[in-house]
Amino acid sequence: MHSTTIPLDYRVITGMVKPGSTVLDLGCGEGELLSLLETHKNCRVQGIEINDREIYRCVARGLSVFHGDIDSGLADFAEGSFDYVILNQSLQEIMKIEAVLKDALRVGKMVIVGFPNFAYYTSRFQIFFKGTTPVTPSLPYTWYDTPNLHFLSILDFTEYCHSQGISIVKACYTGRKRIIRFFPNLFAKNGIFLVHQSRN
Predict the structure, then answer these.
(1) Strand pairing report for 44-49 and 22-26
(2) CA–CA distance, 79 with 110 (Å, rounded to integer)
(3) Domain range for residue 52?
């Protein structure tokens, strides 16, 4: 679990998930995170992915993955049918963020959201000094070929949760190789949040 070969965000997310949980990963890619949760936390895992090649790689790992577009919603899943729904490095690529988040909060008892922080200091420097759209390790695409539709910061997401009655249970901020504890909106490359919908 502490191997340096495991990406830091995967280690953080795995640490947020209780052993033996049911997990749905939206935009699961090649299934590395799901495989980690299955192996190290004995979780029952399910993925949704739109890329055929990545689905084949998930299947090669022995994972259960549905072919689907996250923006189409989660109508096939009942309320509270998973302990955790994960949106890691996919939120910024979704067209209908509010609808997808609402559906994830319905289907999952808890939701884990991870995204690149657009307010990371190197991004700010590139905009201020170069006057160009930032290209960083966490935002590695040029403006004309990026899959990202939304550019949000840690502060943006925190304020959004507060405005929508979404409770932040835990938040973790990561840099290149370590956890960021001070001024995360400036110094963190990524924000990872464990959230749930507040009930009145």
Answers:
(1) parallel
(2) 12
(3) 8-117+151-197
